[in-house]
């Protein structure tokens, strides 16, 4: 399931570039969007690095059904990632045009798309642990189902939005379903973790 989930996420990431290329083959806007996508997705590195640190702890705490410690670890992770993600968004909104200009003046037109993509990937960064938590809890289908819904919705929205609004429309088709998916997964994960308090292992119950 983890491999399939990663493949589906990769597909979501590339949808906009592919559809823009189909609709506007050879147009500089396609390159501008691709650069904005890579720049706007830079924050995902934060999720990757922090998840490598928190995932082993997450698996152990889930095995122990330690809901309180899970909440504390989650709050600590958000306390670290929140300010970093906020700072990243400030840089994107304030200096986004200058950043894109370093690739060439023709890429500056991708600034609105960059801002939208930055917001979408920031949400996915902050809430990315929820998908792994659900899979560790044996709820493997939920991340796959929501990712399939998100991918399908992104493709369906991208054609009309990109046709009418270009790179900005493609960015909206990328970010909107992405935010929807991770908010939904976070809600599912929060619900499942709350249930852990009602299903403590027998050894823990005896100890209490």
Structure annotation, total helices: 8
The SSE string, one letter per element, is HHHHHHHH
Helix content: over 70%
User: Structural class, from secondary structure content?
Assistant: mainly alpha
Uncertain spans, ≥5 residues at pLDDT below 50? 202-208
- Based on Cα principal axes, name the global outline: globular
Overall pLDDT level: 87
Largest sheet: none
Q: Roughly what fraction of the amino acids lie in strands?
A: under 5%
Query: How many angstroms separate the termini?
Result: 36 Å
Number of strands: 0
> What is the C-alpha radius of gyration, as a whole number of Å?
19 Å
Structure description:
Helices cover 86% and strands 0% of the residues. It has helices at residues 2-23, 28-40, 44-64, 67-101, 111-127, 129-136, 141-196, 202-207. It is globular, with a radius of gyration of 19 Å. It has eight helices and no strands. With 208 residues, it is mainly α. The model is unreliable at 202-208 (pLDDT under 50).
């Amino acid at each position: 399931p983890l491999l399939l989930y990663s493949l589906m996420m990769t597909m979501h990431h590339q949808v906009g570039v592919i559809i823009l290329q189909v609709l506007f083959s050879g147009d500089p806007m396609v390159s501008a969007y691709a650069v904005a996508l890579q720049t706007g997705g830079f924050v995902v590195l934060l999720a990757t690095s922090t998840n490598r640190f928190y995932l082993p702890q997450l698996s152990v705490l889930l095995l122990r059904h330690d809901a309180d410690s899970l909440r504390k670890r989650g709050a600590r992770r958000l306390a670290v990632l929140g300010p970093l993600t906020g700072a990243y968004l400030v840089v994107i909104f304030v200096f986004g045009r200058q950043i894109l200009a370093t690739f060439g003046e023709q890429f500056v037109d991708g600034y609105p798309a960059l801002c939208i993509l930055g917001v979408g990937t920031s949400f996915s960064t902050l809430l990315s642990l929820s998908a792994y938590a659900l899979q560790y809890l044996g709820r493997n289908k939920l991340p796959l189902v929501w990712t399939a819904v998100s991918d399908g919705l992104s493709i369906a929205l991208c054609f009309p939005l990109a046709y009418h609004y270009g790179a900005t429309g493609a960015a909206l088709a990328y970010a909107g379903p992405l935010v929807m998916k991770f908010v939904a997964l976070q809600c599912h994960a929060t619900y499942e973790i709350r249930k852990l308090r009602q299903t403590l292992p027998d050894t823990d119950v005896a100890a209490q």
